Amino acid sequence: MSSPGATTTARYEATWEPDWPLDLRRALAPHSRGAADPALRVTPEGIWWTTTTPDGPATARVRYVAGRVSVAAWGPGAERAGAMVPRALGAEDPVAAFDPGDHPLVADLHRRTPWLRLGSTGRTWDALVPAVLEQKVTTVEAHRVWRELLRLAGEPAPGPAPDGMRVLPAARRVLEITDWQWHACGLDGARRRALRAVATVADRLEPHDGCDSPTLQRRLCSVPGIGAWTAAEVVQRTLGCPDTVSVGDYHLKNLVGFALTGARVTSDDDMLALLEPWRGHRQRVVRLLLAGGPRRPRRGPRFAPTDHRRI
């Protein structure tokens, strides 16, 4: 279970009672990179989650039993990681301000998914690295590179975490990774350059006091290799932004178009026009549609992942 010499005594422990029907797995799903994710693991003892903090790495274990959340955390960053859990599960989500309007599907989904909350971690780096790895590749490929990166350069998870869990390497460690090591991980040149660019300015991208979603997106898009899609994916997780939609996603516009109109849309502009009635909560509507909206039947072959280790 735990690594040799790992302390089992948590540096942080707390309990908390959410005022909505929390679904723990679904709440943390946006932070998971597949069933074999070294940074997030589901066990009978709870969900284990590793994170970076300004104080150092941390492991948090989250349980939800009889309407109460219990949190234990280990490592130098335990206090920050443990205190972050309620907001990461959606405690600060302004869902009360959302009006689903008179669209029958959106109103019905909002009624049937009272568990849906948009969480915020307050950590840019933890969301930015996987978002860069996911640029213009299949999910299978991105998850494979994520696992290889953490095995190569991540620290062992503090505390009694399940075997094999790792913490995302700090920016300085990412900059130390050589080209041949990146190639062995399966990372192509474009994403490699983008990752190095963000690692060089990582401290400036963290959301300090008063930083809102547009500000953080502007900072992110000022870095070479970071565009609107990557910035949106980051602020959705870092700040829990209920409005920012991931434009540039290959599948999303079709999913939204089919769910809301029964027809395919051909551009991000068309998708945003459909979502305009919910401005301020457009990303929330996307999450509702992802949670239970109708899906367009698949036609044609799926994209095959590219293994850049063989190129």
From TrEMBL:
<dbReference type="InterPro" id="IPR051912">
    <property type="entry name" value="Alkylbase_DNA_Glycosylase/TA"/>
</dbReference>
<keyword id="KW-0227">DNA damage</keyword>
<keyword id="KW-0234">DNA repair</keyword>
<protein>
    <submittedName>
        <fullName>3-methyladenine DNA glycosylase/8-oxoguanine DNA glycosylase</fullName>
    </submittedName>
</protein>
<dbReference type="GO" id="GO:0032131">
    <property type="term" value="F:alkylated DNA binding"/>
</dbReference>
<dbReference type="GO" id="GO:0006307">
    <property type="term" value="P:DNA alkylation repair"/>
</dbReference>
<dbReference type="GO" id="GO:0006285">
    <property type="term" value="P:base-excision repair, AP site formation"/>
</dbReference>
<dbReference type="GO" id="GO:0008725">
    <property type="term" value="F:DNA-3-methyladenine glycosylase activity"/>
</dbReference>
<dbReference type="InterPro" id="IPR011257">
    <property type="entry name" value="DNA_glycosylase"/>
</dbReference>
<dbReference type="GO" id="GO:0005737">
    <property type="term" value="C:cytoplasm"/>
</dbReference>
<dbReference type="GO" id="GO:0043916">
    <property type="term" value="F:DNA-7-methylguanine glycosylase activity"/>
</dbReference>
<dbReference type="GO" id="GO:0032993">
    <property type="term" value="C:protein-DNA complex"/>
</dbReference>
